[in-house]
């Protein structure tokens, strides 16, 4: 029987639901080295967090995150609060000797991301930033194929992350549209994912040139919020983050980058498209068809060249993570990426080792986000 690890989670709304589901499911599908126990969940609204605790099976609920961090029985602190609270909670948790899991982007800025990274290093605790999309089986398969040299020398990385949930000018000024809470807007919220994909799959960026745009400058203040849904009041406030981000750049290995993130693409609810072109072949991924990877192999005979479909659901170690779920062809979805991340994190905590992407990776991503903001502000190329 594996040992247990007590989990304390801070945050219970949109990401809290995704994380709670993952904590609930991880040891049911994966053979973990320790069994996570959902000990305590924390949120500022007593009624809301109490309901979340009951719904998801957390043993206790509290309204002050310090009660989680200072609880000697807690082994893991999971942070999925708004971005402005990440650093204080993570640093305190590390000082208390807890393993720390934190949502992305890691912090509001590079300075606080570095403080968080220094804290977990000094404490020697296992830490991970929740770029869970790295654990989509198709993305993990892309990484495997690129590392094996199947694409040869990489020439291009093209990525787009598109949503449309704030197109309506009457959509209220939620925290994701306020720089003092979110740090940045579309850039840090969804752009961080496609930037992380590029760093994970292709390598570190060398230089970038970027544009940021805010299409709606003022919005009604928020009256109430439920996840990504919100209701507006009759007062107005200033939008202080970007609505869209575009950048071109060059990786250190010479590959070119073309990256876009927007929350103003009508019809796109959570569209992520990646294409990587190399000297031997190409790979294409679309999140809206997330169990499928498209692969072009230039070595195929001339009379049958073309993109082939790889359905990444084969178990037995053929496709990453697939064997833990269902028989081949039985597809998985968004929520499973969190389960994969929790499973890998728990095993790392049990082994007292690090796991990727750790806070150092989160800091590296934060440096790219800062460079994009600097480039957009100065209208110049920025070297990383």
Task: Compile the SSE list and pairings.
Layout: E1 3-10, H1 14-29, E2 34-42, H2 46-56, E3 60-62, H3 65-69, E4 76-79, H4 86-95, E5 99-102, H5 110-123, E6 127-129, H6 137-147, E7 154-162, H7 179-182, H8 186-201, E8 205-213, E9 218-226, E10 229-238, E11 244-251, E12 256-262, E13 271-278, E14 281-286, E15 292-297, E16 308-311, H9 334-351, H10 359-378, E17 382-383
What does this structure look like?
With 384 residues, the protein is of the alpha/beta class. It has two domains: 3-133, NAD(P)-binding Rossmann-like Domain (Rossmann fold); 137-289 and 291-331, Dihydrodipicolinate Reductase, domain 2. Helices cover 33% and strands 28% of the residues. The chain is built from ten helices and 17 strands. The chain has a nine-stranded mixed β-sheet with strand order 16-15-14-13-7-12-11-8-17. The protein has a six-stranded parallel β-sheet with strand order 3-2-1-4-5-6, sandwiched between helices. Helix 8 (186-201) packs across helix 10. 46% of the residues are buried. The model has no long low-confidence stretch (mean pLDDT 96).
Overall residue-averaged pLDDT value: 96
Main β-sheet description: 9 strands, mixed
How would you name the CATH homologous superfamily of the largest domain? Dihydrodipicolinate Reductase, domain 2
> What is the chain-wise order of helices and strands?
EHEHEHEHEHEHEHHEEEEEEEEEHHE
| Low-confidence spans | none
């Amino acid at each position: 029987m594996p040992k247990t690890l007590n989990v304390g989670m801070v945050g219970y709304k949109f990401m809290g639901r995704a994380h709670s589901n993952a904590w609930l499911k991880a040891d049911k599908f994966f053979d973990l080295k320790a069994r996570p126990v959902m000990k305590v969940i924390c949120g500022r609204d007593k009624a809301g967090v109490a309901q979340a605790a009951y719904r998801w099976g957390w043993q206790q609920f509290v309204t002050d995150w310090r009660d989680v961090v200072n609880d000697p029985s807690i082994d893991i602190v999971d942070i999925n609060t708004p971005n402005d609270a990440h650093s204080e909670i993570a640093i305190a948790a590390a000082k208390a000797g807890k393993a720390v899991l934190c949502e992305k982007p890691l912090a509001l800025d590079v300075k606080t991301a570095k403080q968080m990274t220094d804290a977990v290093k000094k404490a020697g605790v296992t830490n991970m930033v929740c770029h869970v999309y790295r654990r989509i089986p198709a993305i993990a398969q892309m990484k495997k194929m690129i590392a094996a040299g199947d694409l040869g020398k990489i020439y291009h990385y093209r990525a787009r992350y598109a949503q449309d949930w704030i197109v309506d000018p009457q959509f209220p000024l939620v925290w994701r549209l306020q720089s003092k809470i979110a740090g940045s807007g579309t850039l840090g919220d969804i752009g961080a994912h496609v930037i992380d994909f590029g760093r994970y799959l292709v390598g570190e960026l060398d230089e970038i040139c970027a544009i940021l745009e805010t299409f709606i400058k003022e919005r009604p203040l928020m009256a109430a919020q439920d996840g990504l849904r919100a209701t507006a009041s009759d007062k107005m406030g200033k939008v202080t983050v970007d609505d869209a981000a575009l950048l071109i750049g060059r990786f250190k290995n010479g590959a070119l980058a073309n990256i876009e993130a927007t929350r103003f693409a009508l019809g796109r609810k959570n569209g992520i498209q990646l294409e990587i072109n190399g000297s031997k072949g190409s790979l294409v991924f679309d999140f809206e068809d997330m169990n499928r990877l498209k692969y072009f192999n230039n070595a195929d005979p001339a009379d049958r060249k073309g993109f082939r479909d790889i359905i990444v659901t084969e178990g037995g170690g053929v496709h990453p993570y697939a064997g833990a779920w269902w028989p081949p062809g039985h597809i998985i979805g968004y929520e499973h990426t969190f389960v994969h991340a929790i499973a890998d994190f728990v095993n790392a905590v049990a082994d007292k080792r690090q796991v990727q992407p750790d806070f150092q990776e989160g800091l590296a991503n934060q440096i790219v986000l800062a460079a994009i903001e600097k480039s957009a502000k100065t209208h110049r190329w920025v070297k990383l």
